[in-house]
Amino acid sequence: MSDRDPLIDFVTTVSGEGYLKVEETLGDGYVRLRINEAERRQAKHDIRSVEDVVVELLRNARDAHAHRIFIATSRDGDFRALTMIDDGVGIPTTLHETIFEPRVTSKLETMVMDRWGVHGRGMALFSVRSNVTVARVATSALHKGTALTVLTDTTALAERADQSTWPVVDLGEDGAPRVTRGPHNIVRRVVEFACEHPELELYLGTQTEVLATLHALGKVHLDVSDLMFCDDLERLSVWQRPAACSDAAELTSTAENIGLPVSERTAHRVLAGELAPLEPVMTQLLGPEEPEPTAKPDIYRDRRSLRIHHGDLEAFRNELTRAFDSLAERYYVSLRGEPKITVSRDSISVRFTVDKED
Q1: Quick one: DSSP state of residue 219?
Q2: How many CB atoms sit inside 10 A of residue 28's CB?
Q3: CB 39 within 8 A of CB 102
Q4: Are 210 and 260 in contact, with CB atoms under 8 Å apart?
Q5: Looking at residue 331, what is its pLDDT?
Q6: HSE-CB of 320 using CA atoms within 13 angstroms
């Protein structure tokens, strides 16, 4: 039966392509599936567990050139809620639904091969949505990062029974951290990803813990004027918005918009600093990095050396990152980590560390 068979055209017209799985009958029980049916089956195969969903979302954030990724997760009965927030390049508003369609990707010339397989076919988010109850972009815009939420029914998509145990991480002979044992749960997948990508900061906790972390980190990185006089939170990066909220009602609304629903009482506690922010997952496992030895004071140092406020320095770094994005698209390179800015007595130096895409 050919693709132009009148019967196929008639059935397609009456029932829609969703009811017609076969493009061609080949005989002896063999058929050629239509593209949409093949994609649907592939999507079902790509995601076998909730942990697989977490990995696909992490890979998406990494490929969007994120430096910080926040993973909020909780379970209520049979349902697992996941929210992933990153500071990557973001998604244009017009594409918030389109990115969940098959074969939609930002990697026109390249794809990524990592320990979890091929990435860049335009199937990851399609596969996620095909296997979960809800998958949506909570909020995102170009150069503002992304908040993406997922709800899974664990009776339909399984997860490991033990989701509370953290894996054990040891340092290899090369000094690099590696997961050596522990259940293959969500925490382990996040830690394995952090081991593979030491240039990233990954935070993992509940919705409340992640909100407290965003609020605390934003206070450090935002300028005082942003904290006191910001009347349009959407001009800030997604992850910075909780820090600029002026009261509990605004924080509750903002948290809802970025996929971290909390009560107003919890918002009051966050604003009061009663909830400790999370440490990056690798810091929790290995402890903070050893501080560099303190240099002896130089009594001849020029006391008039240049000083730049940390808020201005962060804003400058964000501008540099945005400027690099256009260069990256033309020359197929990606930024590894944040631009390194060195301020000396009479100069400001900027260094970009890049990865070449094959």
Answers
A1: H
A2: 5
A3: yes
A4: yes
A5: 76
A6: 17
Domain spans of the chain, in order of start: 6-33, 45-285, 310-356
pTM of the model: 0.71
pLDDT at 175: 86
pLDDT beneath 70, residues of the chain: 1-24, 26-45, 107-114, 116-121, 224-231, 289-307, 309-311, 344-346, 357-358
DSSP string across 18-48: GG--EEEEEETTEEEE-HHHHHHHHHHHH--
The pLDDT of residue 273 is: 93
DSSP labels, 84-136: EEE-SS---GGGTTGGGSTT--S-SS--EEETTEEE-SS-HHHHHHHHSSEEE
**pLDDT value, residue 52:** 95
Average pLDDT, the chain: 82
Which CATH code fits 45-285? 3.30.565
Q: Quick one: pLDDT at residue 350? A: 83
Residue 237, SS3 per DSSP: coil
| Phi and psi angles of residue 320, each rounded to the nearest 5 degrees, phi first | -65, -40
Strand 112-114 to 117-119 pairing = antiparallel
List the structure tokens of 18.
Answer: 């969703």
Model pLDDT, residue 349: 80
The number of C-alpha atoms within 13 Å of 147 and in the hemisphere containing its C-beta is 23
Helices (H), the chain: 6-15, 35-46, 50-63, 124-131, 186-196, 207-221, 224-229, 248-257, 264-271, 281-286, 310-331
